[in-house]
Amino acid sequence: EPKKKTAFGSVGRRIPYRILHVINQEGESLGNMHRAEALKLMDQHDLKLVLLRENEEPPVYRLMTGQQIHEEQLRRAEKKKASPKTGVVQKELSFSSAIAKNDLETKAKQIAQWIEKKHHVKITIRQAK
Q1: Assigned CATH for 19-82
Q2: Residues 11-14: contacts with CB under 8 Å, at least 24 apart
Q3: Is 90-126 a CATH 3.40.718.10 domain?
Q4: Which residue of 13, 30, 87, 95 has the fewest C-beta atoms within 10 A of its own C-beta?
Q5: In the beta sheet, which residues pair with residue 122?
Q6: In 3-state terms, what secondary structure has residue 10?
């Protein structure tokens, strides 16, 4: 299985591109520059290079502090959490008609939690012997 790339994170010195478009930590464009120049700039200001947009030509990198990287990761995590999930999750629960009262209450609580999370719930009741 190929390793999945992280959506956002510190790149460090492993930059596969020769020419990059660099943005400083205030968000101002520094223009296109060679990888060596960008690494030199990163070392001078004690910052990290982070890949923002890989699909552009040349790819866009931003110089960021560790704190900025952390805040951006949190912001993206919140955004991902808030976005609606694709597909419908179906939960299935089956139990006997001779179920004990406390077991039935526990399962009812579980079903209520699933419904709150907008899951589809399928309940099957088997006849007791």
Answers
A1: 3.10.20.80
A2: 11/48, 11/49, 11/50, 11/51, 11/61, 12/48, 12/49, 13/39
A3: no
A4: 87
A5: 92
A6: strand
Q: Where are the domains of the chain?
A: 19-82, 90-126
64, with CB counted inside 10 A (0-12, 13-18, 19+), is buried
Tens of pLDDT, residue by residue over 60-113, are 888 888 888 888 888 888 888 777 666 777 888 888 888 899 999 999 999 999
User: What's the DSSP call for residue 71?
Assistant: H
Cα 13 to Cα 10, 49, 95, distances in angstroms: 9, 8, 57
